[in-house]
Design a protein that fits this description.
With 356 residues, this protein is an alpha+beta fold. The protein contains ten helices and 16 strands.
Length: 356
């Protein structure tokens, strides 16, 4: 199957309006539509958010039988669906199931005044599903049951979803990677082992041929002391999305504006910046500007990578977000993965709420 894009991410939450308002206030998303019982949505209410090439659907259950109800009861608010735009959702579903994928919802056709949308879903990992989406009109509405406002969503500093980071239980990494290779036709493009003090984790990255879907999958090494991946699995009650990475062309402005909006970013020790130039050479960005905003920098054979991670506002300290600015780089900043690990450890160590 050919993945054309990430069509949308659906967040399952306890209260859709509240969660959507926070994403608008903090990250600049625009409410583009709403749906519920009066518009034909079954068992839920949803708020459609857009910003340039990013579409988020924020959904809360109004019926205990809706998947969002069970998801939130088990995991709290989080990513429940990663939807993939394909040429033919029915064919993609049949292909995935034929390759061993576990079906969730068979193909269903939704017809509206401005086009036809076909949806079908299979399991990805844990309780997260992949929804295949095909549309007969590129300019059609999201879904007939979610009337759109027509508001301009073409502005903003966030361009698209760069990648999705996933935490899985110990021993599950290789099987999940194999599933993405065999069922979805992705390929492994990167792997790394991180050791921080007495803790360790393994990661592998899978991606489709066109680079439209990239998953960074993280697994704890239980031969070492428990760390943040173990804490995520325990708090989330199983595998799940740890963070969504939003691509931006101007991370310094995006971080500055985000901070003004109330986004709290993870801090970085000053010592990180003291060796940055000797490690990377000239990067074309003032080191003091990076230090002031806690932005991380790394380089691969293709170019520079700038990135920063938010603190988790989740009551369980699970889901958070990343801003990433690729100035030629195609990989994920090997040194920054360790910096992230250490930063999250510091946040958790100083967190009075804890992960109980």
């Amino acid at each position: 199957m050919e993945i054309q894009a990430i069509d949308h991410i659906e967040l399952f939450v306890a209260e859709a309006e509240e969660a959507a308002a926070e994403l608008c206030d903090r990250f600049g998303f625009v409410p583009a539509g709403r749906g519920g019982a009066t518009t034909g949505l079954r068992g839920c209410k949803s708020v459609l958010l857009r910003q340039r090439g990013i579409t988020l659907l924020v959904t809360s259950a109004t019926d205990p039988g809706h998947p969002a109800a069970e998801y939130v009861a088990r995991h709290g608010d989080g990513v429940g669906v990663i939807a993939l735009a394909v040429e033919d959702a029915e064919a993609a579903f049949a292909e995935a199931v034929g390759r061993g994928g576990v079906p969730v919802a068979p193909p269903e056709v939704f017809k509206g005044e401005d086009g036809e949308v076909v949806l079908a879903s299979v399991i990805g990992f844990g309780d997260v599903e992949h929804r295949f989406v095909s549309r007969d009109r590129s300019d059609g509405s999201f879904l007939p049951m979610i009337p759109e406002t027509g508001r301009d969503c073409s502005g903003g500093l966030l361009r698209e979803i760069d990648h999705i980071a996933v935490c899985v239980p110990a021993g599950a990494l290789d099987g999940i990677v194999r599933c993405y290779e065999e069922v979805f036709g992705l390929r492994q493009i990167f792997e790394e082992r991180i050791v921080v003090g007495s803790q360790a984790m393994d990661s592998k990255v899978v991606q489709d041929a066109a680079g439209k879907l990239t998953l960074t999958i993280l697994e704890p090494d239980v031969a070492f002391d428990p760390g943040q991946i173990d804490a995520f699995i325990a708090a989330h009650d199983g595998a799940g999305v740890q963070h969504l990475a939003f691509l931006t062309e101007d991370i310094l402005t995006a971080v500055s504006e985000g901070a003004d909006r109330g986004v709290r970013f993870l801090s970085t020790p000053s010592s990180y910046y003291e060796v940055l130039t000797s490690r990377l050479g000239s990067i074309g960005v003032p080191v003091e500007a990076l230090r002031e905003l806690n932005v991380l920098a790394d380089r691969d054979h293709s170019g520079l990578l700038l990135q920063i991670f938010t603190e988790s506002r989740h009551p369980r300290r699970t889901l958070f977000y990343e801003l990433i600015d690729r100035r030629g780089a195609h990989t994920f900043g090997s040194n920054n993965i360790q910096a992230l690990y250490e930063a999250v450890e510091r946040q958790q160590a100083g967190d009075p709420i804890g992960l109980d």
